[in-house]
Amino acid sequence: MWRPGFPFAEMAPALLRGWHRALCIKSIRYRGTAEAPGLVMGLQRGGSCRGRAYRVAAADRLAALEYLDGRELATRAYRTRFLALDLDDGRGGTRRVQAYGYVSDPTHAQYGGALSRAEQVALIVQGCGAEGPCRDYLANTVAHLDALGIRDGLMHSMLTAVDAALEASP
Q1: Domains of the chain
Q2: CA–CA distance from 106 to each of 23, 25, 103, 167 (Å)?
Q3: Mean pLDDT for each 10-residue chunk of the chain (170 residues)?
Q4: 13 with 41: CB under 8 angstroms?
């Protein structure tokens, strides 16, 4: 979450086991339309991924959850779930916490977890919605992951493929 959109008391490096970051949700609102969907990320079962966890002060929790649910559950392509995260404790170890999160819903019509790479690239190239081009979403995500020291080779290679497709298009 490189754009949390809510006040937080603390941000910490986190490792999520059993789920991985994937381009698997067809965006029909923020990064695409129903007629020309984009493709955005969701958490899919299997593997692991690194990211950031946010601790929200008790006084801000309800507003943060309402904001996030409004943003992430607009089309119900994600399910809410408590996820076990390993956080860097600042002393060379980790501590496990339960965190509220959003995972992709493989039964939803917008789920695109079985798309080929070519289909993924095509959706990202075409997608443009209320928040702008899907390509910008991918590039911003890659840049923010890099800034956090999280190297995601799959997202880098997808951005390279999208840029090549855009360059090759008339």
Answers
A1: 10-168 (3.10.490)
A2: 13, 9, 9, 32
A3: 86 95 96 98 96 96 96 94 93 93 98 97 98 97 94 95 94
A4: no
